[in-house]
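quick q for whoever's on today - can somebody do inverse folding on this one?? i tried earlier but teh output was garbage lol. C-alpha coordinates:
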Protein backbone atom coordinates (compact mmCIF):
# COMPACT_ATOMS: atom_id res chain seq x y z
CA UNK A 1 0.00 0.00 0.00
CA UNK A 2 2.72 2.44 0.96
CA UNK A 3 4.52 1.54 -2.20
CA UNK A 4 1.43 2.36 -4.24
CA UNK A 5 1.05 5.71 -2.49
CA UNK A 6 4.72 6.49 -3.12
CA UNK A 7 4.29 5.69 -6.81
CA UNK A 8 1.28 7.99 -7.08
CA UNK A 9 3.10 10.79 -5.28
CA UNK A 10 6.10 10.38 -7.62
CA UNK A 11 3.87 10.52 -10.64
CA UNK A 12 2.11 13.65 -9.29
CA UNK A 13 5.43 15.37 -8.64
CA UNK A 14 6.67 14.47 -12.09
CA UNK A 15 3.48 15.78 -13.68
CA UNK A 16 3.75 18.99 -11.64
CA UNK A 17 7.34 19.47 -12.82
CA UNK A 18 6.31 18.87 -16.40
CA UNK A 19 3.45 21.32 -16.03
CA UNK A 20 5.76 23.89 -14.47
CA UNK A 21 8.30 23.43 -17.26
CA UNK A 22 5.55 23.80 -19.87
CA UNK A 23 4.32 26.91 -18.13
CA UNK A 24 7.83 28.39 -18.07
CA UNK A 25 8.31 27.45 -21.69
CA UNK A 26 5.02 29.04 -22.67
CA UNK A 27 5.89 32.12 -20.64
CA UNK A 28 9.29 32.40 -22.32
CA UNK A 29 7.68 31.99 -25.76
CA UNK A 30 5.10 34.64 -24.94
CA UNK A 31 7.84 36.95 -23.68
CA UNK A 32 9.94 36.32 -26.80
CA UNK A 33 6.95 36.92 -29.11
CA UNK A 34 6.10 40.13 -27.29
CA UNK A 35 9.72 41.31 -27.56
CA UNK A 36 9.95 40.33 -31.24
CA UNK A 37 6.76 42.20 -32.14
CA UNK A 38 8.03 45.36 -30.44
CA UNK A 39 11.43 45.48 -32.14
CA UNK A 40 9.98 44.50 -35.52
CA UNK A 41 7.51 47.41 -35.45
CA UNK A 42 10.14 49.83 -36.78
CA UNK A 43 13.01 49.86 -39.27
CA UNK A 44 14.70 52.86 -37.68
CA UNK A 45 17.87 51.69 -35.94
CA UNK A 46 17.65 54.11 -33.02
CA UNK A 47 14.03 53.10 -32.42
CA UNK A 48 15.01 49.41 -32.57
CA UNK A 49 17.83 49.92 -30.04
CA UNK A 50 15.63 51.90 -27.65
CA UNK A 51 12.72 49.44 -27.88
CA UNK A 52 15.04 46.46 -27.33
CA UNK A 53 16.79 47.81 -24.21
CA UNK A 54 13.59 49.03 -22.60
CA UNK A 55 11.71 45.85 -23.51
CA UNK A 56 14.38 43.51 -22.10
CA UNK A 57 14.66 45.62 -18.93
CA UNK A 58 10.91 45.36 -18.31
CA UNK A 59 10.39 41.75 -19.35
CA UNK A 60 13.37 40.31 -17.45
CA UNK A 61 13.42 42.83 -14.58
CA UNK A 62 17.14 43.53 -14.87
CA UNK A 63 18.96 46.65 -13.70
CA UNK A 64 20.97 47.37 -16.85
CA UNK A 65 20.55 46.52 -20.52
CA UNK A 66 23.17 47.81 -22.93
CA UNK A 67 23.83 47.27 -26.62
CA UNK A 68 27.40 47.71 -27.84
CA UNK A 69 28.59 47.65 -31.45
CA UNK A 70 32.05 46.25 -32.15
CA UNK A 71 34.24 48.39 -34.45
CA UNK A 72 37.20 46.19 -35.38
CA UNK A 73 38.98 48.86 -37.44
CA UNK A 74 39.19 51.10 -34.39
CA UNK A 75 39.38 48.24 -31.84
CA UNK A 76 36.61 49.65 -29.63
CA UNK A 77 33.14 48.76 -28.37
CA UNK A 78 30.65 51.58 -29.03
CA UNK A 79 27.62 51.99 -26.74
CA UNK A 80 24.62 52.57 -29.05
CA UNK A 81 21.75 52.12 -26.56
CA UNK A 82 21.20 51.69 -22.83
CA UNK A 83 18.45 51.29 -20.24
CA UNK A 84 19.56 51.56 -16.60
CA UNK A 85 17.67 51.50 -13.30
CA UNK A 86 20.74 52.36 -11.25
CA UNK A 87 22.81 55.58 -11.73
CA UNK A 88 26.09 53.80 -10.95
CA UNK A 89 25.54 51.48 -13.89
CA UNK A 90 24.82 54.10 -16.57
CA UNK A 91 27.33 55.38 -19.12
CA UNK A 92 26.85 57.98 -21.87
CA UNK A 93 25.63 56.96 -25.31
CA UNK A 94 28.44 56.98 -27.81
CA UNK A 95 30.97 55.99 -25.15
CA UNK A 96 33.82 53.92 -26.54
CA UNK A 97 35.39 51.08 -24.55
CA UNK A 98 38.81 49.85 -25.71
CA UNK A 99 38.85 46.26 -26.94
CA UNK A 100 40.96 44.68 -24.22
CA UNK A 101 42.60 41.34 -24.94
CA UNK A 102 41.02 39.26 -22.16
CA UNK A 103 39.15 36.01 -21.76
CA UNK A 104 35.70 37.64 -21.80
CA UNK A 105 36.29 39.48 -25.08
CA UNK A 106 37.86 36.42 -26.66
CA UNK A 107 34.76 34.35 -25.80
CA UNK A 108 32.44 37.03 -27.20
CA UNK A 109 34.47 37.10 -30.44
CA UNK A 110 34.11 33.31 -30.57
CA UNK A 111 30.33 33.90 -30.36
CA UNK A 112 30.07 32.38 -26.88
CA UNK A 113 27.73 33.50 -24.08
CA UNK A 114 29.51 34.78 -20.96
CA UNK A 115 27.99 34.62 -17.46
CA UNK A 116 29.62 36.81 -14.82
CA UNK A 117 28.60 36.34 -11.16
CA UNK A 118 29.55 38.57 -8.22
CA UNK A 119 31.54 40.75 -10.60
CA UNK A 120 30.63 44.35 -9.85
CA UNK A 121 32.68 46.68 -7.73
CA UNK A 122 30.35 49.70 -7.70
CA UNK A 123 29.96 50.28 -3.93
CA UNK A 124 26.62 48.47 -4.01
CA UNK A 125 25.12 46.61 -1.04
CA UNK A 126 24.36 43.57 -3.21
CA UNK A 127 26.61 41.93 -5.76
CA UNK A 128 25.72 42.14 -9.46
CA UNK A 129 25.55 39.39 -12.02
CA UNK A 130 26.27 40.01 -15.69
CA UNK A 131 25.28 38.21 -18.87
CA UNK A 132 27.03 38.98 -22.17
CA UNK A 133 25.44 37.61 -25.34
CA UNK A 134 27.03 38.13 -28.78
CA UNK A 135 24.96 39.77 -31.53
CA UNK A 136 25.86 38.13 -34.81
CA UNK A 137 24.93 38.06 -38.47
CA UNK A 138 25.63 34.68 -40.09
CA UNK A 139 28.46 33.83 -37.69
CA UNK A 140 29.91 37.34 -37.99
CA UNK A 141 30.13 39.37 -34.81
CA UNK A 142 28.22 42.68 -34.88
CA UNK A 143 28.31 43.53 -31.18
CA UNK A 144 27.04 42.30 -27.83
CA UNK A 145 24.02 42.51 -25.56
CA UNK A 146 24.99 43.25 -21.95
CA UNK A 147 22.62 42.54 -18.98
CA UNK A 148 23.28 43.20 -15.27
CA UNK A 149 21.12 42.10 -12.35
CA UNK A 150 21.82 43.45 -8.81
CA UNK A 151 20.84 40.70 -6.39
CA UNK A 152 23.12 38.67 -4.10
CA UNK A 153 20.90 35.56 -4.41
CA UNK A 154 20.42 35.76 -8.19
CA UNK A 155 21.93 33.28 -10.63
CA UNK A 156 21.53 33.22 -14.42
CA UNK A 157 19.55 30.05 -15.06
CA UNK A 158 19.84 28.06 -18.26
CA UNK A 159 16.27 29.00 -19.13
CA UNK A 160 16.97 32.71 -18.68
CA UNK A 161 20.15 32.45 -20.75
CA UNK A 162 18.27 30.59 -23.50
CA UNK A 163 15.59 33.30 -23.53
CA UNK A 164 18.17 36.10 -23.74
CA UNK A 165 19.95 34.25 -26.56
CA UNK A 166 16.67 34.02 -28.46
CA UNK A 167 16.09 37.74 -27.84
CA UNK A 168 19.59 38.48 -29.07
CA UNK A 169 18.93 36.48 -32.25
CA UNK A 170 15.72 38.42 -32.92
CA UNK A 171 17.48 41.69 -32.11
CA UNK A 172 20.31 40.84 -34.53
CA UNK A 173 17.75 40.16 -37.29
CA UNK A 174 16.02 43.49 -36.55
CA UNK A 175 19.36 45.34 -36.60
CA UNK A 176 20.30 43.72 -39.90
CA UNK A 177 16.93 44.67 -41.41
CA UNK A 178 17.28 48.21 -40.04
CA UNK A 179 20.78 48.59 -41.50
CA UNK A 180 19.60 47.23 -44.85
CA UNK A 181 16.67 49.66 -44.81
CA UNK A 182 19.02 52.51 -43.94
CA UNK A 183 21.37 51.60 -46.79
CA UNK A 184 18.43 51.38 -49.20
CA UNK A 185 17.13 54.74 -47.95
CA UNK A 186 20.57 56.29 -48.43
CA UNK A 187 20.85 54.76 -51.89
CA UNK A 188 17.39 56.03 -52.75
CA UNK A 189 18.27 59.52 -51.49
CA UNK A 190 21.51 59.46 -53.45
CA UNK A 191 19.70 58.20 -56.55
CA UNK A 192 17.09 60.95 -56.25
CA UNK A 193 19.88 63.52 -55.88
CA UNK A 194 21.67 62.14 -58.95
CA UNK A 195 18.43 62.15 -60.94
CA UNK A 196 17.81 65.78 -59.97
CA UNK A 197 21.38 66.72 -60.85
CA UNK A 198 21.24 64.89 -64.19
CA UNK A 199 17.85 66.41 -64.93
CA UNK A 200 19.19 69.87 -64.17
CA UNK A 201 22.29 69.22 -66.29
CA UNK A 202 20.11 67.95 -69.13
CA UNK A 203 17.84 70.99 -68.81
CA UNK A 204 20.87 73.31 -68.89
CA UNK A 205 22.29 71.39 -71.86
CA UNK A 206 19.00 71.69 -73.73
CA UNK A 207 18.87 75.42 -72.97
CA UNK A 208 22.47 75.79 -74.15
CA UNK A 209 21.72 73.86 -77.35
CA UNK A 210 18.67 76.03 -77.93
CA UNK A 211 20.78 79.13 -77.38
CA UNK A 212 23.46 77.86 -79.77
CA UNK A 213 20.82 76.97 -82.32
CA UNK A 214 19.39 80.49 -82.09
CA UNK A 215 22.92 81.91 -82.47
CA UNK A 216 23.48 79.69 -85.49
CA UNK A 217 20.22 80.80 -87.11
CA UNK A 218 21.03 84.42 -86.33
CA UNK A 219 24.55 83.98 -87.70
CA UNK A 220 23.33 82.40 -90.94
CA UNK A 221 20.81 85.19 -91.36
CA UNK A 222 23.45 87.84 -90.56
CA UNK A 223 26.14 86.31 -92.79
CA UNK A 224 23.66 85.90 -95.64
CA UNK A 225 22.70 89.54 -95.30
CA UNK A 226 26.30 90.72 -94.92
CA UNK A 227 27.43 88.72 -97.95
CA UNK A 228 24.44 89.74 -100.07
CA UNK A 229 24.56 93.47 -99.28
CA UNK A 230 28.01 94.17 -100.81
CA UNK A 231 27.06 92.05 -103.84
CA UNK A 232 23.87 94.05 -104.31
CA UNK A 233 25.79 97.31 -104.07
CA UNK A 234 28.42 96.04 -106.52
CA UNK A 235 25.71 94.94 -108.95
CA UNK A 236 24.06 98.36 -108.74
CA UNK A 237 27.40 100.14 -109.21
CA UNK A 238 28.16 98.02 -112.32
CA UNK A 239 24.79 98.89 -113.82
CA UNK A 240 25.29 102.59 -113.11
CA UNK A 241 28.79 102.46 -114.68
CA UNK A 242 27.21 101.30 -117.94
CA UNK A 243 24.92 104.29 -118.19
CA UNK A 244 26.93 107.00 -116.37
CA UNK A 245 27.64 109.83 -118.86
CA UNK A 246 30.29 111.64 -116.82
CA UNK A 247 33.73 110.43 -115.84
CA UNK A 248 33.28 111.87 -112.31
CA UNK A 249 30.26 109.66 -111.70
CA UNK A 250 32.05 106.65 -113.16
CA UNK A 251 34.89 107.31 -110.69
CA UNK A 252 32.39 107.39 -107.83
CA UNK A 253 30.84 104.07 -108.88
CA UNK A 254 34.30 102.55 -109.20
CA UNK A 255 35.06 103.59 -105.62
CA UNK A 256 31.81 101.95 -104.48
CA UNK A 257 32.84 98.75 -106.26
CA UNK A 258 36.22 98.76 -104.58
CA UNK A 259 34.77 99.47 -101.13
CA UNK A 260 32.11 96.78 -101.34
CA UNK A 261 34.57 94.29 -102.77
CA UNK A 262 36.90 94.96 -99.81
CA UNK A 263 33.98 94.54 -97.41
CA UNK A 264 33.08 91.18 -98.95
CA UNK A 265 36.67 89.96 -98.82
CA UNK A 266 37.03 91.09 -95.19
CA UNK A 267 33.98 89.11 -94.08
CA UNK A 268 35.15 85.98 -95.87
CA UNK A 269 38.63 86.37 -94.40
CA UNK A 270 37.16 86.69 -90.90
CA UNK A 271 35.37 83.39 -91.32
CA UNK A 272 38.45 81.67 -92.71
CA UNK A 273 40.76 83.11 -90.01
CA UNK A 274 38.44 81.94 -87.25
CA UNK A 275 38.31 78.48 -88.77
CA UNK A 276 42.13 78.32 -88.97
CA UNK A 277 42.52 79.53 -85.38
CA UNK A 278 40.10 76.91 -84.08
CA UNK A 279 41.83 74.10 -85.98
CA UNK A 280 45.31 75.24 -84.84
CA UNK A 281 46.43 75.75 -88.46
CA UNK A 282 47.03 79.48 -88.01
CA UNK A 283 50.70 80.39 -88.48
CA UNK A 284 52.30 82.83 -86.04
CA UNK A 285 55.10 84.91 -87.61
CA UNK A 286 57.03 87.14 -85.19
CA UNK A 287 59.03 90.11 -86.44
CA UNK A 288 60.68 93.12 -84.79
CA UNK A 289 58.18 95.99 -84.57
CA UNK A 290 58.73 99.59 -83.43
CA UNK A 291 55.68 99.91 -81.19
CA UNK A 292 55.52 103.71 -81.09
CA UNK A 293 55.52 104.20 -84.87
CA UNK A 294 53.32 101.19 -85.53
CA UNK A 295 50.66 102.13 -82.95
CA UNK A 296 50.37 105.69 -84.28
CA UNK A 297 49.72 104.26 -87.74
CA UNK A 298 46.82 102.19 -86.39
CA UNK A 299 45.39 105.07 -84.36
CA UNK A 300 45.62 107.50 -87.30
CA UNK A 301 43.44 105.16 -89.37
CA UNK A 302 40.55 105.74 -86.94
CA UNK A 303 40.83 109.52 -86.65
CA UNK A 304 38.38 110.38 -89.43
CA UNK A 305 35.79 108.01 -88.00
CA UNK A 306 36.20 109.42 -84.49
CA UNK A 307 35.89 112.94 -85.92
CA UNK A 308 32.72 112.06 -87.83
CA UNK A 309 31.15 110.51 -84.72
CA UNK A 310 32.22 113.41 -82.48
CA UNK A 311 33.91 111.11 -79.96
CA UNK A 312 36.74 112.02 -77.56
CA UNK A 313 39.96 110.02 -77.76
CA UNK A 314 42.49 110.03 -74.94
CA UNK A 315 45.75 108.27 -75.66
CA UNK A 316 48.42 107.31 -73.09
CA UNK A 317 51.70 105.86 -74.39
CA UNK A 318 54.96 105.25 -72.59
CA UNK A 319 57.58 107.70 -73.92
CA UNK A 320 60.09 105.04 -74.88
CA UNK A 321 58.02 102.15 -76.15
CA UNK A 322 60.68 99.72 -77.44
CA UNK A 323 60.95 97.63 -80.54
CA UNK A 324 59.63 94.18 -79.70
CA UNK A 325 59.49 90.75 -81.27
CA UNK A 326 55.80 90.11 -81.92
CA UNK A 327 53.36 88.85 -84.56
CA UNK A 328 52.57 92.21 -86.15
CA UNK A 329 49.55 90.97 -88.10
CA UNK A 330 47.86 89.19 -85.19
CA UNK A 331 48.53 91.91 -82.62
CA UNK A 332 47.42 94.57 -85.10
CA UNK A 333 44.20 92.66 -85.66
CA UNK A 334 43.61 92.52 -81.90
CA UNK A 335 44.16 96.26 -81.41
CA UNK A 336 42.11 97.14 -84.49
CA UNK A 337 39.14 94.94 -83.52
CA UNK A 338 39.02 96.31 -79.97
CA UNK A 339 39.44 99.90 -81.17
CA UNK A 340 36.72 99.33 -83.77
CA UNK A 341 34.38 97.96 -81.09
CA UNK A 342 35.02 100.98 -78.87
CA UNK A 343 34.16 103.35 -81.73
CA UNK A 344 31.13 101.27 -82.66
CA UNK A 345 29.53 101.24 -79.19
CA UNK A 346 30.52 104.70 -77.90
CA UNK A 347 27.91 107.46 -78.38
CA UNK A 348 28.82 110.98 -79.51
CA UNK A 349 30.61 113.24 -77.03
CA UNK A 350 31.75 110.25 -74.95
CA UNK A 351 35.33 109.14 -74.27
CA UNK A 352 37.53 106.36 -75.61
CA UNK A 353 40.76 105.85 -73.64
CA UNK A 354 43.74 103.91 -75.05
CA UNK A 355 46.74 102.97 -72.91
CA UNK A 356 49.92 101.19 -74.04
CA UNK A 357 52.69 100.07 -71.68
CA UNK A 358 55.66 97.77 -71.80
CA UNK A 359 56.45 95.72 -68.69
CA UNK A 360 59.94 94.34 -68.24
CA UNK A 361 60.92 93.28 -64.68
CA UNK A 362 63.95 91.17 -65.54
CA UNK A 363 66.25 93.60 -63.67
CA UNK A 364 64.50 93.10 -60.32
CA UNK A 365 66.70 91.16 -57.90
CA UNK A 366 65.45 87.63 -57.31
CA UNK A 367 62.52 88.10 -59.69
CA UNK A 368 61.84 87.50 -63.36
CA UNK A 369 58.65 87.87 -65.36
CA UNK A 370 58.23 87.52 -69.09
CA UNK A 371 58.41 90.97 -70.80
CA UNK A 372 55.03 91.89 -72.25
CA UNK A 373 53.05 94.55 -74.05
CA UNK A 374 50.00 95.71 -72.07
CA UNK A 375 47.17 97.31 -74.01
CA UNK A 376 44.04 98.77 -72.38
CA UNK A 377 41.06 100.30 -74.13
CA UNK A 378 38.13 101.80 -72.23
CA UNK A 379 34.97 103.41 -73.53
CA UNK A 380 31.90 105.02 -71.97
CA UNK A 381 29.43 102.22 -72.64
CA UNK A 382 28.52 99.56 -70.10
CA UNK A 383 27.83 95.89 -70.91
CA UNK A 384 25.07 94.26 -68.86
CA UNK A 385 26.11 91.50 -66.44
CA UNK A 386 23.89 89.03 -68.30
CA UNK A 387 25.64 89.78 -71.60
CA UNK A 388 29.24 89.88 -70.35
CA UNK A 389 29.81 86.08 -70.19
CA UNK A 390 28.83 85.73 -73.88
CA UNK A 391 30.69 88.55 -75.61
CA UNK A 392 33.52 86.24 -76.76
CA UNK A 393 31.08 83.68 -78.19
CA UNK A 394 31.08 83.26 -81.93
CA UNK A 395 28.32 85.12 -83.78
CA UNK A 396 27.17 86.84 -80.60
CA UNK A 397 26.14 90.47 -80.77
CA UNK A 398 24.79 92.52 -77.88
CA UNK A 399 21.22 93.45 -78.82
CA UNK A 400 20.29 97.12 -79.21
CA UNK A 401 23.75 98.32 -78.16
CA UNK A 402 25.02 99.84 -81.44
CA UNK A 403 24.19 103.57 -81.50
CA UNK A 404 25.68 103.96 -85.00
CA UNK A 405 23.79 101.00 -86.54
CA UNK A 406 26.92 99.62 -88.23
CA UNK A 407 25.95 95.97 -87.75
CA UNK A 408 28.42 93.11 -87.84
CA UNK A 409 28.74 89.34 -87.80
CA UNK A 410 29.63 88.86 -84.14
CA UNK A 411 33.01 87.39 -85.09
CA UNK A 412 35.26 90.25 -83.95
CA UNK A 413 35.71 89.41 -80.26
CA UNK A 414 35.74 85.67 -80.99
CA UNK A 415 38.69 86.33 -83.31
CA UNK A 416 40.37 88.52 -80.69
CA UNK A 417 40.08 85.81 -78.05
CA UNK A 418 41.57 83.16 -80.34
CA UNK A 419 44.37 85.48 -81.54
CA UNK A 420 45.34 86.36 -77.95
CA UNK A 421 45.41 82.66 -77.16
CA UNK A 422 47.64 81.98 -80.19
CA UNK A 423 50.09 84.62 -78.94
CA UNK A 424 50.14 83.05 -75.43
CA UNK A 425 48.54 86.19 -74.06
CA UNK A 426 45.72 87.08 -71.68
CA UNK A 427 42.57 89.13 -72.32
CA UNK A 428 40.30 90.40 -69.57
CA UNK A 429 37.16 92.53 -69.58
CA UNK A 430 35.29 94.38 -66.88
CA UNK A 431 32.25 96.60 -67.15
CA UNK A 432 30.74 98.82 -64.46
CA UNK A 433 29.68 102.40 -63.73
CA UNK A 434 29.01 103.08 -67.44
CA UNK A 435 32.55 102.09 -68.51
CA UNK A 436 33.88 98.98 -70.23
CA UNK A 437 37.60 98.12 -70.21
CA UNK A 438 39.45 95.45 -72.19
CA UNK A 439 42.98 94.59 -71.03
CA UNK A 440 45.33 92.57 -73.24
CA UNK A 441 48.75 91.26 -72.21
CA UNK A 442 51.00 89.76 -74.90
CA UNK A 443 54.50 88.32 -74.23
CA UNK A 444 57.02 90.28 -76.34
CA UNK A 445 60.78 90.20 -75.70
CA UNK A 446 62.96 93.21 -76.61
CA UNK A 447 66.60 94.35 -76.34
CA UNK A 448 66.40 97.87 -74.89
CA UNK A 449 65.46 99.07 -71.43
CA UNK A 450 62.19 100.89 -70.76
CA UNK A 451 62.13 104.29 -69.07
CA UNK A 452 59.13 105.03 -66.91
CA UNK A 453 58.04 108.44 -68.32
CA UNK A 454 54.49 108.64 -69.66
CA UNK A 455 53.06 110.99 -72.23
CA UNK A 456 49.31 111.66 -72.19
CA UNK A 457 47.48 113.08 -75.20
CA UNK A 458 43.84 114.11 -75.40
CA UNK A 459 42.15 114.51 -78.77
CA UNK A 460 38.63 115.90 -79.19
CA UNK A 461 36.84 116.24 -82.51
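ok took a stab at it. sequence:
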Amino acid sequence: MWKSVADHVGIAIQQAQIYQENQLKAQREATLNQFTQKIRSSLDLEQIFSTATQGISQLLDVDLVEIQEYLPQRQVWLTVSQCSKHPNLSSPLGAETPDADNEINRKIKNLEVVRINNSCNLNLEDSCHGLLVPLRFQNRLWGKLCLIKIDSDYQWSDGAVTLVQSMAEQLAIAIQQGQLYQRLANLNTDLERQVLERTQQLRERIQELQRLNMLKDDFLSTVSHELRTPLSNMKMAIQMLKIAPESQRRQRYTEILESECYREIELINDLLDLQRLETASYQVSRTVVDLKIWLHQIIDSFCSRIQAQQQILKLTLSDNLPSVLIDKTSFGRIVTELFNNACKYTPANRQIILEFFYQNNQDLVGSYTVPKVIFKISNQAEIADTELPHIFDKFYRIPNADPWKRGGTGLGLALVKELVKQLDGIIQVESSQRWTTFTVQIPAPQGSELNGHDNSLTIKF
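fwiw The first strand starts at residue 64 and ends at 71. also Residues 287-460 form a domain with the Heat Shock Protein 90 fold (CATH 3.30.565.10). so keep that in mind when u check it
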